[in-house]
């Protein structure tokens, strides 16, 4: 099956009981048992719900894994995956990981005795120097948020295997439409489905896919034990969002190309970060491992004042956190999504006060460029 066909026909297409073409929203918490322990596969909706199951089957197919799981948020999915580890274990993460992931590693997992080290995973020698006898996993986001740094997933997978580590990839920015980390050797793929997978700024959700039955058993045990599951209505919204993921990602891609080429020639823009530009350091790797570069662009206008000025003047870009929806969004990571990262650390990473991040929507790119032209004057 080709990718756009799989978005429509993957997973469990339709309802076998009624023939409904759209998976029904099974708004049920419990299920009748014919006799003690005799049931149709569902007992209680924390353990399993047919609408959530349809979504979990679909994301499993799209990510080419063994088993999929849906959670109440991206962070709940990340928490569940991190719960695979024990006190005394050590995890290596990329240094410009999502702010919430940095926060959970340094403020929550640390209290539970799980250690973490942050390195630039675009250079696997750095990761190698961070390995300890108790290291259990390499966690990478690629491309990263907000600097769009690209880690070579196949190389990272080879290296992780050689060090006996699990490779966990946060695939939120690319989505399975552009990038399938499990096919490149990753063990676990994570999503904030709040972003491109939902795609319409109307649901908070997380997904995880694992590459083996053993990891599937372990993660299902944790999902059921800790309970951060996605409800049936939100599961249905994600199934609906996924149907148009291919069309949307292609539209985001076209617009992002237009906007990136406009910004890269603009005198008020000091630096631009977009993996689709040949000048981006991760361009060659992104080209090799992904089918598209995505709709996220960051650019530096030099100072916090100039950044605020742009944010005040834009019309079609909504000032808001989050990304990946049909409408274009704009933010200043240092003050918003990455505010939980200490200032010195932000500066070290290049997340300056003048850095603006845009999530390019699917409007007409002429309007977006006209808007940016006026705002950058
Ligand atoms: C938003 C985001 C998360 C967290 O997901 P929520 O759905 O907000 O809990 C994790 N990783 C990345 C890359 C994100 O953009």
From TrEMBL:
Signal peptide: none annotated. GO terms for biological process: cysteine biosynthetic process via cystathionine; transsulfuration. Its cofactor is pyridoxal 5'-phosphate. Keywords: Pyridoxal phosphate, Transferase. The keyword Transmembrane does not apply. It is an enzyme of class 2 (transferase). InterPro entries: Cys/Met-Metab_PyrdxlP-dep_enz, Cys_met_metab_PP, PyrdxlP-dep_Trfase, PyrdxlP-dep_Trfase_major, PyrdxlP-dep_Trfase_small. Its EC number is 2.5.1.48. Pfam families: Cys_Met_Meta_PP. The modification N6-(pyridoxal phosphate)lysine is found at residue 195. One of its GO terms (cellular component) is cytoplasm. One of its GO terms (molecular function) is cystathionine gamma-synthase activity. PANTHER family: CYSTATHIONINE GAMMA-LYASE, TRANS-SULFURATION ENZYME FAMILY MEMBER. Belongs to the trans-sulfuration enzymes family. NCBIfam families: PRK07671.1 (NF005810). This is Cystathionine gamma-synthase. It comes from Paenibacillus beijingensis. The lineage of its organism: Bacteria, Bacillati, Bacillota, Bacilli, Bacillales.
């Amino acid at each position: 099956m080709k990718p756009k066909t799989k978005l429509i026909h993957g997973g469990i297409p339709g309802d076998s009981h009624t023939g409904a073409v759209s998976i029904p929203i099974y708004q049920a918490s419990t299920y009748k048992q014919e006799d003690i322990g005799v049931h149709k596969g569902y007992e209680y909706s924390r353990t399993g719900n047919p609408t959530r199951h349809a979504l979990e089957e679909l994301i499993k197919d799209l990510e080419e894994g063994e088993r999929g799981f849906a959670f109440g948020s991206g962070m709940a999915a990340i928490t569940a995956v991190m719960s695979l580890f024990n006190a005394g274990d050590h995890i290596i993460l990329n240094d410009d990981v999502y702010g919430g992931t940095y926060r959970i590693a340094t403020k929550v997992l640390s209290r539970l005795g799980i250690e973490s080290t942050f390195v630039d995973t675009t250079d696997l020698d750095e990761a190698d120097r961070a390995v300890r006898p108790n290291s259990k996993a390499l966690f990478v986001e690629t491309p990263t948020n907000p600097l769009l740094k690209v880690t070579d997933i196949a190389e990272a997978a080879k290296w992780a295997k050689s060090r006996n580590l699990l490779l966990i990839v946060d695939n939120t920015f690319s989505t399975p439409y552009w990038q399938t980390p499990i096919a490149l050797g990753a063990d676990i793929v994570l999503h904030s489905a709040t972003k491109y997978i939902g795609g319409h700024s109307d649901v908070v959700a997380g997904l995880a896919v694992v590459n083996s039955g053993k990891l599937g058993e372990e993660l299902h045990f944790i999902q059921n034990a800790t309970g951060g599951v996605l409800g049936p209505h939100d599961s249905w919204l994600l199934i609906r969002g996924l149907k148009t993921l291919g069309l949307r990602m292609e539209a985001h891609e076209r617009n992002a190309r237009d906007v990136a080429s406009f910004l890269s020639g603009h005198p008020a823009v000091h630096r631009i970060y977009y993996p689709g530009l040949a000048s981006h350091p991760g361009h060659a790797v992104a080209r090799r491992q992904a089918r598209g570069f995505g709709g996220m662009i960051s650019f530096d206008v030099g100072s916090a004042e100039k950044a605020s000025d742009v944010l005040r003047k834009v019309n079609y870009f909504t000032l808001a956190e989050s990304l990946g929806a049909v409408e274009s969004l704009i933010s200043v990571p240092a003050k918003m999504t990455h505010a939980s990262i200490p200032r010195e650390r932000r500066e070290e990473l290049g997340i300056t006060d003048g850095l603006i991040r845009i999530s390019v929507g699917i409007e007409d790119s002429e309007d977006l460029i006209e808007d940016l032209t006026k705002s950058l004057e």
